[in-house]
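[job 0412] stage=fold_complex status=start
inputs:
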Amino acid sequence: MKCSSCHDSFIDRWTLQDAWGLAAAFGDEPVEIHRYQTSTGEMARARFPLRELGDIDSQANVAARRRRVAELLTSPDNGLFSRTLVNRLWARLFGRGIVEPLDEMMEHEPWNSELLDWLASELIRQDYDVKQMLRLITTSQAYQMPAVVRTQPDESESYVFRGPEMRWLTAEQFVDSLRLLGQPPAADASPVRLPERSWQQTGSRLMTMLGRPTRDVVVSVRVHERTPLLALELINGSELEDLTMRSARIQLQSPDTADAIVTRVYSILLSRRPTSDEQRIAAGILGSPATQESLNELIWSLAMLPEFQLVP
Amino acid sequence: MFRNESLDRRDCLKSLAGAATAAMTMNYVPCLASAEMAPEPTADSMILLWMAGGMAHTDTFDPKHYVPFSPGIETKRVLSTFPAIDTTVDSIKFTAGLEEIASVMDQGTLIRTFTCPVTEHITHAKHQYHWHTGYFPPLTVAAPHIGAVMARTLGPRHPDVPAFIDIAETFAESARETAGLRAFLTSGFLGAEYAPFFVPRAADAVRQLDSRVGARRDASRMRAFRELVKASPAGDYVSSHQQESMLRAIERAEQLMNSPVAKSFDLSLEPKATYDYYNTGPFGLGCLLARRLVEAGARFIEVHTPYKPFGYWDTHENGHATMVGLKKLIDRPVAQLIRDLRDRGLLNRTLVVLASEFSRDVIMEGKENKFSEGGVKVSATMTEEKHYGMHAHFADAGSVLMWGGGVKEGVAYGETQNEQPCKSIANPVEIEDLHATIYHAMGISPKQAYEIERRPFYVTRDGVGRPVQAVLQSMVSG
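[job 0412] stage=fold_complex status=done
writing structure:
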């Protein structure tokens, strides 16, 4: 709606009245329609941009108007809502959407409209249960295909699906994976859990560098670029050093052999066991006996691996 | 003087470098052809000295009638709380406490009439964002900081020195999002490639490059890392653009750490006398670091005085007493920075700008006839010393100092009223024109544009900025 808050959009169907009508539906006070910065003298009437779905009573109080917006937004007849939602879920799991760019649903054709329609109707049938959708997608053969590297243009029209795309760990995933390693292993070998996930915590310098936006900026698609400045933070920043140091200390507290510790570190960070080659290199890095410093070296090196930072 | 060839060597190299970067990063923002030719640069580097929090002009670089404190004085009679002092330019006076900067005034320009928009609430966050990006929030796109624009448009001066360096103590204080990482300190939609390199503490800046874990551990760690990359079975199937970009980033970082220019981050290499002279605190050392980085080949450096609500330049009470300390913080290092740059023959190609988001007034909040809501309550008389000073946010005039890099020497521009409120009465300068002036010196057109969401984004708002000819040595066209 960004464009249409100043003028009728040139690229999709939203008009100036649509944008201000939506604002009026949320507003405590009457709002006057502005074209660019100039007032038009016309007061906005509360309305939902997809007018075919129904009207909003502009005389109703603000709570009722907002409730009505929510109803229209999530109405099963609102195909845009369910398609937008499944498109974002798909993009999270596959590295790109069925319609791409994600924020331009109205402007681009899906590369497979049957797929998008079917997923959207499944979402409605499952009563908007996101977990069910995640189950549906992740248990599909499409999701389980080997990962591919993006070499194609961004627009969805010319895209050909060849499998999920390699994508970077988010800042929170990156940090949480390492924090997991800093949790004492459970005695009964049950999975280690974090008391709190980093998305629940305020941001930090490291997370900002890894692409977590600050809250004062609206960001719907994160940027994950590997810049020298990020690399410097990873090499020299105190946050990562503290994380890996702590992990090394906790891991060394277990009575396990060095080989067993290496195996555990690999399975937590890379979700696999080390190869015999890797086991040998890791033993060399750890030295004998392993110290907190040498284990820190190993953990840091693994955290820097593209294999760790990329999700296939 | 303007270039008349359509594509000279600099542009050609820039576009080649751009193409290479474009291939590397998927999020490369295209540059739109500038509507007018880029001006010939008169500066290669810029240092921005940021007085965060709102620096009162009548208590710093624009003295008005001085009224000493006595209990019961009428508030509106208090225009300056410091007496005026001479500078090396006869017609320009400062206020007491700025004697050192006064001694280098003959080498720079003073703009007395920086004015900024007044919205309902005149706030630090919005006005700092506005000053640094040229755009007033809320915005529909994340606007880049002027340093990021320079990093993107001009590139680094030296391949091993980050193009955009930000020296701010604030980052060391806390990891809180709002306090620690302010929205304007970003490359915005231009992408992470042009983001600032943050130096939280100038005093130990070198630790960011001089491996934190020590050279021995760093070397063994990098060896371990390389072996593990080779051994990783993922290497067979993720040998990809992403994998390479990670490895290249690490190599570039290592190159930076091992480069001879890393030494320029090390303030301990300065003679003790110099270090001590600059060392009025983190800001002073930031000035010293900025000088060393310009020598090494930095493009854009910002040095902040710490920003803390109701602290430093955010003087909401005890304005006079606080101001005494603030002047001590900046006077020596700023003046010495100018002298050092001059003595090293760098001042003529280095633009130094000292500025703040807005000014302060003894009564007025906002602008005359356009009061800002939520301002401080001021009583008609001053009964206690803590009332003495400039406390209310004021947007109708503010001082900006500029030195070197093609700005005129010993010149003042703009005029402010000699009675309450001390607003701009001739030649007001808004941010668009101030940025246009800065960009002009750096060789960037104010109409330079980048494409975002299929629309042009101009480096000055809507491309309207016009350089202030009166403060520039070179001729501005048109």
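[job 0412] summary: Residues 1-26, 171-181 of chain B have pLDDT under 50 and may be disordered.
[job 0412] exit 0
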